[in-house]
Design brief:
Layout lengths: L3 E17 L9 E13 L4 E5 L4 H7 L4 H4 E2 L3 E2 L7 H12 L3 H5 L15 E4 L9 H17 L4 E5 L9 H19 L4 E5 L6 H10 L5 E5 L7
Parallel strand pairs: 6-7, 7-8, 8-9
Antiparallel strand pairs: 1-2, 2-3, 4-5
Length: 228
């Protein structure tokens, strides 16, 4: 049986193009960013890697375990090993000689030309020091233009200023102004998305989408806490 013989873990450190400000639930994110990665190696020399948050003791306990104790195609990653979900799926794809989407999805999907679009997710609430909504909207729109200069054609805007950083009505009004300003700066062809980090409720989400309908918001992420 295939065994796990090595688990390595490290953080990939990087720098954002500029310091990231607040979102609806958290304060300043700063300039630095780090991504936790794990690499899993089997006794047959197969290797898989991916995002993983795990403890040293966990990793040590899993070395020497049989792979089918951690993962099977029918059930995916077993509950005790969920911290290694992404590396184990990557490992399974490497061993099968297939991309992971083929292991879990439609075999008829053509590989030729398959690509995943990316978007600029750097449009945080960098405007909270400004009292004027127009000045705030201009600041975020200028940040979107910086992203466009780097080649981005899709942009995700952090919204939900009224959740903790501003009074609700004023924060929602500014969210709407910022969305409109980014659309004006980017033109009709760019994709505009918003992420409220659960900072809205149903009525606020509906209000924002209604009042920015002409801005063509592509989707909203984490509009509010789900209770179902």
């Amino acid at each position: 049986m295939t065994q796990i013989v090595r688990i390595e873990w490290a953080r990939l450190a990087g720098q954002r193009p500029r310091a990231a400000g607040c979102n609806a639930r958290l304060g300043e994110h700063g300039r630095s960013v780090s991504v936790p990665l794990a690499r899993v190696t089997t006794d047959e020399g197969a290797v898989g890697f991916g995002w993983a948050q795990l403890l040293r003791d966990q990793a040590a306990a899993w070395v020497g375990r049989e792979l089918d104790q951690a993962w099977t195609l029918s059930s995916g990653v077993r509950a005790p090993f969920v911290a290694l979900e992404y590396p184990l799926w990557d490992l399974a794809g490497q061993m099968a000689g297939k991309p992971v989407y083929r292991l879990i999805g439609d075999e008829s999907v053509a590989d030729a030309g398959l690509c995943v679009a990316c978007y600029d997710t750097s449009l945080y609430m960098d405007d909270l020091h400004l009292a004027d909504d127009d000045a705030a909207a201009e600041l975020v729109a200028c940040e979107a233009l910086e992203g466009a200069a780097r080649g981005h054609r899709a942009f995700k805007i952090k919204v939900g200023r009224g959740a903790m950083h501003m009074p609700m009505a004023e924060g929602t009004r500014r969210d709407i102004r910022v969305i409109r300003a980014v659309r004006e700066a980017m033109g009709a062809d760019a994709l505009i998305m918003i992420d409220a980090n659960n900072g809205y409720n149903l009525n606020l989400a509906r209000q924002v989408l209604e009042e920015t309908a002409d801005a063509g918001v592509y989707w909203i992420e984490e509009a509010f806490h789900e209770d179902g």
